[in-house]
Design goal:
This protein is α+β, with helices and mostly antiparallel strands. The chain contains 5 helices and 6 strands.
Amino acid sequence: MTALQESIDLVRTAAQAADRLKATDPVAYDVSDRLGITDAMLIVSANNERQVLAIAEEIEKDLYLNHNHLEPRSREGVAEGQWILIDYGDIIVNVMHDDSRLYYNLERLWRDCERIALDLTANGPDDTTDSVADAADSSEE
């Protein structure tokens, strides 16, 4: 089973919103085979708590405006600003502080899953923006 096109479109909208606010190292995975409760997982980073919160808010705004008033089922971590998890059911968005992303190394959990091309052009091809993911993977070798 692979992620539905609608879920891929949601992830791309979220990634574009994050990219506009200078989120770093965006990566998305098709986790539908592994989890069964969601289709896709997006992970993006920021280097301070204020930016983490701003990115999360921009993602929520864009998904609401561009996808039939879609609202999250839940969100966690807003008060701390270290790791904001936004659950939309079909997708889960993780907006993480750089330090938290390195510490939790979510990419390690999903590295066997197929990556979703994000088609971001503002910061270049998404394959060149995975320095955190690549660093995390190489640290295990």
